[in-house]
Amino acid sequence: MEVTIANLQDIDRIWEIISANAQWLLNYKGLSHWSSYYTKDLIVEVCKTKTVFVLKNEHGVVGLIAISDHMPDYYTEPSKEALTKLIPPVLFLSMLAVDPAYHRHGFANILLDFIEKYAKDNKYKTVCLDCRAEDTSLVAWYLRKQFGIHNTFVEGEDETYLMMQKMI
User: Fold this and answer.
1) What is the pLDDT of residue 73?
2) Helix 11-24 to helix 40-49 angle, to the nearest 10 degrees?
3) What digits encode the pLDDT tens for the residues 29-66?
4) Which of 5, 64, 68, 133 lies in disulfide reach of 50, CB 3.0 to 4.6 Å?
5) What's the pTM value of the predicted model, to 2 decimals?
6) What phi-psi label fits residue 91: left (phi over 0), alpha (psi between -120 and 50 degrees) or beta?
7) Shortest CA distance to 105 belongs to which of 147, 166, 35, 55?
8) Cβ-contact 96, 114 below 8 angstroms
9) Dihedral, 168, 140, 71, 107 alpha carbons, nearest 10
């Protein structure tokens, strides 16, 4: 198992994993936010503008996570204002995904632990992410990983997001 920075050859596999997770979220959780947001073009753009780490095993890429010094562009004004209360520098996480064939194998833990070490080694004070409030098992997992709920924001008519943070 190794975590490395994604390269251009990984983009197709990253897109496969994101697409599979979007379908999984829709089928098993009734959540369409990934399927309505992520496109292959967006994945290519993310790989160009953010740092994307991939987790590889003997079969190839099985998971990924993106990081950035910049808040996601979809944050609402109240969320942006709430971010001013975070202790800088802040590392923003997005696209934490594991191939559904490998769900519940601890691979998301490996990726998140890697990012927390990366944040500490690079002198970040806060790690921040958002997730759907309706995905209660994901929220519980982040809480177990010592993330706290910093803010809530709503997109559209019924999509409630939690902005979560962890002090490093």
Assistant:
1) 78
2) 120
3) 999 999 989 999 999 999 888 899 999 999 999 999 99
4) 68
5) 0.92
6) beta
7) 55
8) no
9) 80
Q: Which range marks the domain in which residue 101 is found?
A: 2-167
Cβ neighbors of 139 (< 8 A, separation 6 or more) are: 131, 133, 162, 164
Answer for the pair 67, 111: CB distance below 8 angstroms, yes or no. no
Say which CATH number the domain at 7 has: 3.40.630.30
Lookup: tokens for 56: 């590889």
Residue with tokens 């808040």: 71
5-20, pLDDT tens digit by residue? 999 899 999 999 999 9
Question: In total, how many domains does the chain have?
Answer: 1
Could you tell me the two tokens for 91? 């590392």
167 has which bridge partners?
A: 126
**CA-based nearest residue to 146, from 114, 118, 120, 168:** 168
Element (H, E) at 109: helix 107-121
